[in-house]
Amino acid sequence: MMSPYLQRPLELGADIVYDSGTKYLSGHHDLMAGVVTCNRQDISKQIGFIINAVGNALSPFDSFLLLRGTKTLAIRMDRQQRTAMAVADFLDRHGFKVFYPGLKNHPGKGTHDRLASGPGAVLSFVTGDKALSERIVGATRLWGISVSFGAVNSLISMPCAMSHASIDPAVRAARGLPEDLIRLCVGIEDPEDLIDDLENAIMEAGVTLPSPLPSITEPFTPIRGEPWSPPQLTFNPKPIVEEPRKPTHSHWFISAPGKIILFGEHAVVHGVTAIGASVDLRCYALASHRDDGEISLHLPDLNNWEHSWQIESLPWDAVTPMRAGEDHGPLLDPRLMDAITTRALPSNVNLPEYIRAKAAVTAFLYIYMILRQDGKPKPSFSFITRSTLPIGAGLGSSASYSACVAAVNLIFAKRTKLTDPVRKRLNSEATISYTVKHDGRRAIPSEVAEEVNKWAFIAEKVMHGNPSGVDNTVSVHGGAIAYTKAVNGAKGGMNGLHGFRSVKFLLTDSKVPRDTKRLVANVGLRLKEDPIRGADVLDAIQAISIEGYRCLSDPEIPRETLLNGLSKLIKQNHGYLKELGASHISLEEICELTDEFGLCTKLTGAGGGGCAVTLIPD
């Protein structure tokens, strides 16, 4: 793994050395070769005779490829081990147990430095959880999944599941090969791209690493033959000096996905089943502990709105504190809502450019204040969000924001905590966070997810008045679900939908802003004006949702039957939503355009603009 550039056993007393020409000497994975070297003439003649007699010498073209590779060996190795050092440092700083001789804490570093002039470009680390390791490996994009090494491209693998899978598990355990071990073979790609991809994979697997990454700007040129030491990296901007971590985590990074509603918009508010699914567009939130007695909220996606409050200046006299474990109840506290509106909101939220920010700010303050417990200190922290979701387009931007707000406030109010399975993924000093995401049910315990979901629904109420609860449920729990709201004593609930991934949809943003609160209220008004026809429409949408759920969850249904059936259900559902006044001329234009190509489209979310969803056939 060192290559002759970094380690030369002949100089250390070996008589015969075999190097793989397939790996670093070639460097491009385009030939299979081996190189045998020795320092004795008699042995050299014997080896040459055997190669000539057997006839397994390299072909002329393979010899050319190998010689070509040796010309760039030094440049490649310098680049690869420099990047490997940055990757190892990244993993080590975030609490993973890393095996790499370039790290100062590596137990065999002294021995390695005496025998080699560099640490090489292969490293490994463990996560403490085999399933977590599998998710990390599967979530990478730039790192190719392969058991090889030594080429210009970076590779990732799990030895116990790949190269060493044929070895009996008991033997692997006896020889100290962890089942959760991940091996990284670093190539020549941009180091920041590789680290960013690895970070994203770790986040997607269920653990987030909120520390910012440095930009590596200084070249690294090790001197052959001298003891190797980690390169002095220059960071841009200035180096981040990490203070000793406190027993409690001062930074939390949360993300939650958006959603689409396939069937049942608006009707779900009135007890009809809705089919929804999460999308891989997200709201990201970072909460950081403060010691100055203030809380701050920063919303860069809403015209960069930002404000800080002295905690004691908030209208605490209007708060009825919630006891630990106590549910909020179906109605918002009108006294607290009025106090926030009249005494806590800064005046600039009433400016036209900040009209969307007003609801988000109110929801944040409401959840923060209502979760206060008597006798407990009020948490001081800053909260900033960014979103890849288009705002107000019907894709759940407010629901994903509500999930983040609820999760952060529950954590800082000490209403929820990390559980042992999550805590064991990293050591006790690591920065650990939840990621509320597609597989959130696996990343965090179901009872914690349900607690977050309850308070995310309250935040949705603050912003939208009478939400159905499907948006925040999809955002917190992820995946695809069938959701029914409890209305008029009827039982509500949620069922997972596991066949949903096999169907493709296209989202089209009409770029027409809409007001969910007003649209929901208008639909409710129409249903009251004509209750008989309204009941018929709701019954029809309920039948569509049930049939859609049956189709999507039935693994035996023929593919053509499934797609044809979904197309008809989509068309019918959109027709009923149009009758309820939820459509818009821009959405109708999208429907007409896709219809010309034989595709079926409907509005998704509250309608009145926003996005349309189109079924894409195979």
Question: Could you characterize the architecture of this molecule?
Answer:
It contains 20 helices and 17 strands. With 618 residues, it is of the alpha+beta class. The strands form four sheets. Strands 8, 9, 10, 11, 12, 13 and 14 form a seven-stranded mixed sheet that branches. Strand 13 (480-484) and strand 14 form a beta hairpin. It is 39% helix and 16% strand. It starts with a helix and ends with a strand.
Output the radius of gyration: 30 Å
What is the makeup of the main sheet? 7 strands, mixed
Shape: elongated
Helix content: 25-40%
Structural class: alpha+beta
Parts with pLDDT < 50 across at least 5 consecutive residues: 210-248, 418-441
Number of helices: 20
Distance between the termini: 45 Å
Summarize it.
The protein has 618 residues and is an alpha+beta fold. The chain has helices spanning 3-6, 21-25, 41-54, 60-71, 73-93, 109-115, 130-139, 169-174, 191-205, 334-344, 355-370, 397-412, 420-423, 440-443, 446-464, 470-477, 516-529, 531-553, 559-579, 585-595; strands at residues 16-20, 34-38, 97-99, 122-126, 144-145, 155-157, 182-185, 251-263, 274-289, 294-299, 305-310, 381-387, 480-484, 493-496, 504-509, 601-603, 611-616. Helix 11 (355-370) crosses helix 15 and helix 17 crosses helix 18 (531-553).
